[in-house]
Amino acid sequence: MEKEDNRRVWLGITYTVPAKPSRARVYIWRKLKELGAEYYHGMAMVPQTPRLQESIKKLVARIRELGAEGTPCLRVYNKSDLFWGEVRPHGEGEVNISAKTGEGIPELLAAIDRTLDKGTRRVTVHLPYDKGGLLDLLYREAKVESVEYGSTIDITAVCNPKAVGAVKPYIEGWVEPREPWEA
């Protein structure tokens, strides 16, 4: 006898609406609960089904009307290892990942960088040992993700413009950004 697969694909929804009036937040909360949402760490998790797709689109439009238009939005779909080809959602601001296999994680990180761009860049830096003091600057000014010691100090970090300016001679593949009119 074949075993039935009861796994669900969930859509995570986060939203920010103005604090006043509170009826907007209550309205959204009630609508999400009607759709079967479960809340997990401040995120509404809604079952991703074709039947709910249109209702979710209408609710997202309503959230925008209530003042959340300026809030960055990125739709992340987990369990992409279970789906192939055009079945997967795709488009601007949508990323497919698999937490199980790690598929799509680099794309997710890049999409987060683009969505929340405040001038930060994820870079790989190859520091000579005599410039090791710059590593301290990176720990203070950037988010250091990894450090490996070999022929140089190899660092992966998410850097703000100040940190990039300090280490740009050592950034792998660095090309000075140009304004469109400089082309």
Tell me roughly what share of residues is in helical segments.
25-40%
- Can you summarize the main beta sheet? 3 strands, antiparallel
Number of beta-strand segments = 8
Q: Return the domain count.
A: 2
Low-pLDDT stretches are 1-5
Q: How many helices in DSSP terms?
A: 5
For the biggest β-sheet, the strand order reads: 1-3-2
Overall 3D shape: elongated
What's the SSE pattern? Answer: EHEEHEEHEHEEH
Q: End-to-end span in angstroms?
A: 65 Å
Give the strand content. 15-25%
Q: Mean pLDDT, as a whole number?
A: 80
Task: Summarize the topology.
Blueprint: E1 10-13, H1 22-34, E2 38-40, E3 43-47, H2 50-68, E4 75-77, E5 94-96, H3 105-115, E6 121-127, H4 133-141, E7 142-149, E8 153-159, H5 161-167
Parallel strand pairs: 4-5
Antiparallel strand pairs: 1-3, 2-3, 6-8, 7-8
Helix pairs in contact: 1-2, 4-5
